[in-house]
Amino acid sequence: MIHDSEEKYFNDIKQKAQLYGVTISDSEARDLLRHLDLVIEANKSVNLTRITSVRDGINLHIVDSLLYIAADLSMRESHGRLLDIGTGAGYPGIPIDICSSVNVTMIDSVGKKVRILQSFVDELGLDSKSECIKSRAEELALKQFSSFEYVTARAVAQLSTLIEYATPFLVKNGKAIFSKGRMSDDEIEHAQITAKICGMKLVSRETFELPEESGHRELLTYVRERDSKVNLPRRNGLAKSEPLYLKHH
Ligand SMILES: C[S@@+](CC[C@H](N)C(=O)[O-])C[C@H]1O[C@@H](n2cnc3c(N)ncnc32)[C@H](O)[C@@H]1O
């Protein structure tokens, strides 16, 4: 548990968020830290993250998640719906929930992770505007077609796969925002082909450096402009095993 150093960590989170233009309140910083504390504690018995220290967690989980807000400040005031695909311990879904007014739905295909995630949401009192669902993206998209203004994902799959996963969930003009480390030329080219097939347009690509040289990030934002040329979602696993950029090139 965090005690003496709480104050120091609050200020650290607030100052680091501010570096990216995200102003957060004391109570938001407290909730972000409380979530991280719960994740580090739960991680002792269930494998959720390779990060075990609060210091690393602030940079690599909290600040990294807040980059999604930095990339699209509109979500701070939006009361729309946001879907976080493959959320794991709730990154970036929970920090976005804490620091914005969007209604966040978090999904993961692993039931054990979703049960722990639900306990974090309950403990943090986020339950009135958060939802945790155990599902693969491809399955939930059939039930929640065209239902979200925003889709996010971090560390889940290649960009082309993420674009295919996100597309059916988005309303027209809805945005998919993905964070990536360094990408290969192939990953970018495959994403461009997939986006075209899915009716998605890359509208912004911003570069960020995480604090204390913790990493390089690119935040890519796609808008759902047109109907997809293929019926989405496709069957489970096809986005990876038979990528659209190969089939429909
Ligand atoms: C490396 S973890 C990242 C977790 C979290 N987003 C983060 O950045 O800390 C990837 C997660 O995506 C989930 N996942 C992978 N493919 C998925 C799919 N098709 N639908 C839903 N969840 C998926 C996995 O179960 C796993 O928890």
TrEMBL record:
**Is rRNA processing one of the keywords UniProt gives this record?**
yes
Q: Where in the cell is it found?
A: Cytoplasm
UniProt keyword terms in alphabetical order: Cytoplasm, Methyltransferase, rRNA processing, S-adenosyl-L-methionine, Transferase
UniProt-listed SUPFAM superfamilies: S-adenosyl-L-methionine-dependent methyltransferases
Show the GO MF annotations: rRNA (guanine-N7-)-methyltransferase activity
| Gene Ontology CC, one term | cytosol
From the Swiss-Prot or TrEMBL record, give the protein name.
Ribosomal RNA small subunit methyltransferase G
Instruction: Please name the source species.
Output: Parafannyhessea umbonata
